[in-house]
Amino acid sequence: MSSDAKTNPITPAGLAALKARYDHLLGTERPAIVEIVSWAAGNGDRSENGDYLYGRKRMREIDRELAHLARRMKAAKVIDPAAQVDRSRVWFGATVTLADEDDNQRQITLVGDDEQDASADRIGWSAPIARALRGAGVGDLRTVRLPGGEKEWEVVAITYPERVPA
Q: How confident is the model at residue 166 (pLDDT cuts 50, 70, 90)?
């Protein structure tokens, strides 16, 4: 169940977060802005009406984000990391413990690009370190090309979320 680079893999939780953002924008934020714009438009001269101008600008931003989210959800391929069969290798959804040359350890989880969060050590599937780690097993060395030069990491441990019985 490895994932190739052409798909847009995402975890079930990641897709749920995209849907929640889409629903919030469509059901809450956009109607509120439409109401402000309608009210402001009724106040006469629109060329110097800050509420109207800001509202129109914000509505365009929301519409762009809605379109982006819709495209990302349509292209998404949900992959449940808990269902991974080959748990001895690094595939989508793996949590990987790495050690560098100085034995400094770091733990990262490989997630979809739409759910990456470096501050939470959630690395996007197409990031350089994720590409370098694909298919690696415990004890394997992987070299990652970073802006500051190359860095070598050893895979110390690989874990996946536990399967939940149906």
A: low
Length of the chain: 166
Burial 77-94 (b: 16+ CB within 10 A, else e): eebbbeebeeeebbbbbb
| Residue 12, C-beta contacts closer than 8 angstroms, at least 6 positions apart | 78, 80
> 122 φ, ψ to 5°?
-105, 105
| Domains, the chain | 8-78 (1.10.287.180), 81-159 (3.10.50.30)
**Which residues sit opposite 157 in a β-bridge?**
97
Identity of the residue numbered 71: R
The CB-based long-range contact list for 119-124 (8 Å cut-off, 24+ gap) reads none
Q: Is the pLDDT of residue 1 over 70?
A: no
Q: What is the average pLDDT score of the chain?
A: 90
Query: pTM here?
Result: 0.79
Tell me the three state secondary structure of residue 14.
Answer: helix
